[in-house]
Amino acid sequence: MHAMITRVAVALAGVGLVAASATSAAGGDGRSTDAESPHTEMVRLATSQAYGTKAVLTAKRTGDISATVRLRVRIRDADGDGWQNAGTRVVGSPGGWFWHVLSGPDAVCGFKISDIGQRRIWVRLMISASIGCDDQRRAFHVEDGELVRG
Q1: DSSP string, the chain
Q2: How many domains are there within the chain?
Q3: Residue span of the structural domain in which 88 resides
Q4: What is the pLDDT of residue 115?
Q5: Are 71 and 133 within 8 A, CB to CB?
């Protein structure tokens, strides 16, 4: 039993190290980076379109058990004929999510676009089956045509 607990503690510590180094590489501002990774597995977690906004939530495997979640948003052009890219942001910490949880059926606990005030996108993800959903609802909005946190 002690060996199993030690392996779990080491694995969780490794996720923390991956997240810390990835945050440094991304400059800590939540913008996505194109760092080289031997893991190329990716899954689309959710999509939504409302109020002239399209949002796509994806997860990319970044290690044996870690993953990075990204939110990509496009908004309607001023003339209403097409779409323009508002940007991509990392949700939470880079490498700070569990891949096997995100690649499962209940990964997204909440994902919506709100029209109250600014175009706000709300994201809430599963931490693990035993812990449940993250208590934090992460918010993003489009400001001057660019996707920002808050």
Answers
A1: -HHHHHHHHHHHHHHHHHHHHHHHHTTTS-B------S---EEEEEEEEETTEEEEEEEEE-SSSEEEEEEEEEEE-TTSSSEEEEEEEEESSTT-EEHHHHTSTT-EEEEEEE-SSS-EEEEEEEEETTTEE-SPPEEEEEETTEEEE-
A2: 1
A3: 2-149
A4: 81
A5: no
Contacts of 12 (CB under 8 A, 6+ apart): none
Q: What is the reported pTM?
A: 0.72
Q: For 106-150, what is each residue's pLDDT tens digit?
A: 999 999 998 877 779 999 999 999 999 999 999 999 998 899 999
